[in-house]
Amino acid sequence: MANRTIKDAKTVHGTNPQYLVEKIIRTRIYESRYWKEDCFALTAELIVDKGIELRYIGGIYSGNIKPTPFLCLVLKLLQIQPDKDIVIEFIRQEDFKYMRALGAFYLRLIGSSSDVYKYLEPLYNDFRKLRRMSKMGTFDVIHMDEFIDMLLREDRVFDVILPRILKRKTHEDNAELGPRVSVLDDDLEADMDSDEEQSNDESHEVLRSERRHRSKSRSPVRRHRSRSPHSRSRRSRSRSRERRSDRDRDRRDRKRSKSPKREKSKREKKDKKSKKESKEPKDPKADEIAEANALRAKLGLKPLKP
Q: Which residues form the domain of 88?
């Protein structure tokens, strides 16, 4: 009874939702310790806590084909079929990255192609790191956008065959989806504009240099006469700059002579603050409970007690 799909479950892609996972892997999951101890009698409310506890993603590993907790929770979601709003909230929340990966994988299995593109493509902008367990039991690191690209492009992920989806172009032709907007488009446009401005500035500089060369070659006498006022103005400017620099130095010296008392008072205040912060112990569990309660409040669940 514990391994059967709920009575009110709907067929997904014409079959029982649990049949989306192959029989061999499904039986290994049923025999695993995590499924028997942690996934027994899980509901849509309790699976939120299990998703928060995830620390890595993966499929099966070891020679005996042991399933990861991530794959066990995916099968449990297929078994209980939570509401679509709960799965979307898994994907949209930003506090727990492994719960987001869990919701994305489940939506890729049961969702329509339009929903898959609609809710998974925004995750291309998430560049956080994820720990992944390989078949040999070792860990490597991938990013969230790489994981989403695997779900949208590959046929098999974590030893589970993904259902086929239509190409994005067909949805665009049917006016079901708009054209894809990437965050990189703004950066590319800004780079193009900057390149155009640089090319325009270079062309203006070339024209100015040519005009100067022509004016020098045509009238050498005028050139000699026109230099004298410029040279005088340059000398006056250099003198004024030297005076300003001397004044700035005097001001800096005065400030430095007055500042030791202020610096001492500031240092004393900083030392007091650092002592207070060091005395107050930080509880990391309280922060995790607060984040979990915020997510449970969005889903309409009861908060956890510290």
A: 17-180
